[in-house]
Design brief:
mainly alpha
């Protein structure tokens, strides 16, 4: 009997996995809910406040990103559950801080000019922000994303999920944003990169709106207390549609 008890799997996941699973499942529920209701929301006056977080009001692009974000979150959940089944917790990853002395010294331009056969530095590849590029919406499989999750810091996957689902602080409860912030930071992600992409998308959305005379910029001045009326809830709470938004037949009003 003692040997059987020793070989049984733990009744609950290890502490850090359990905390991260809590965050991932909130993101997953939010992504599924928004994907199920976005076609209803798109006609609502406040929808640009949500679309601005995606950088576009193009519904096909928004749906593609939501689909990929849901798959990423599901892949991360599967990886965490598999690790928990082995009884192994996850470790914190400290963010590496580059030392100023580690930066390469600037090139001596006078020596380069004096040496006509000096080899020119190879051009550096252009780094694209997440969510850009011609192959951006190639639909990955769950298995492909799961392999990606296993070979990268978990915090980087969390950032990618937030970018795909357009999760920003103003859409979250204070408690959930703090949990998400800490998870990204402690597991090797960069909240700063998430904020930079948020700002870039808002600028893209602003230019998109400028090119359409029929649009307005009311979304820019949307106070936080109005977010609940536009989204229906704050991320971290129970997903729901706004009370004044008509519900289409078959539209989901809560997480599956």
């Amino acid at each position: 009997m003692k040997r059987e008890a020793a070989t049984q799997r733990p009744a609950s996941p290890p502490e850090r996995i359990a905390a991260l699973l809590h965050v991932v499942r909130i993101l997953l529920a939010y992504g599924r809910h928004l994907a199920d209701t976005v076609t209803v929301r798109v006609a609502a006056p406040g929808f640009p406040a949500i679309a601005a977080c995606f950088g576009t009001i193009d519904l096909s692009i928004i749906l593609a990103r939501l689909h990929r974000g849901i798959l990423r979150a599901a892949a991360l959940e599967r990886v965490l559950l598999a690790r928990a089944a082995r009884g192994r917790d996850i470790a914190f990853v400290r963010t590496r801080i580059r030392s100023r002395t580690s930066q390469p010294a600037p090139a001596d331009l006078t020596k380069s000019a004096a040496n006509p056969i000096a080899r020119e530095q190879a051009p550096q590849p252009v780094r694209r922000s997440p969510g850009t590029g011609p192959t951006d919406f190639h639909p990955p499989t769950l298995e492909e994303l799961e392999r990606q999750v296993r070979r990268r810091p978990l915090g980087r996957t969390l950032v990618d999920i937030c970018l795909d689902l357009a999760v920003v602080p103003g859409l979250c409860t204070g408690t959930f944003w703090n949990e998400l912030f800490e998870a990204i930071h402690w597991y090797g992600g960069s909240v700063a990169s998430l904020m930079r992409e948020r700002n870039r998308r808002e600028q893209l959305f602003d230019r998109e709106q400028d090119s359409s005379p029929a649009q307005n910029c009311d979304w820019l001045n949307l106070p936080r207390q109005m977010v609940r009326q536009v989204l229906g809830f704050f991320i971290g709470g129970q997903p729901a549609l706004p009370l004044d938004l008509p519900i289409a037949a078959g539209a989901a009003t809560g997480p599956p």
